[in-house]
Amino acid sequence: MRPSVNRWPARVDVLQSASGLLLVLFIWGHMFFESSILLGHDAMYLVAKAFEGQPLLSEPHPELVSIAGGTVLMLIALHALLALRKFPATWRQYRELHGHLGRMRHWDSTLWYVQVITGFFLFFLAAAHLSQMMLQPEDIGPYASADRIWSDHYWLLYAPLLLTVHLHAAIGVYRLAMKWGPFSAATTDRWRGRARLLMVSALAFFLCLGTASLVTYMRLGAEHAPYKGERYTPSWERE
Ligand code: HEM
Question: Would you say 36 and 47 are in contact if contact means Cβ atoms under 8 Å apart?
Answer without folding.
Answer: yes
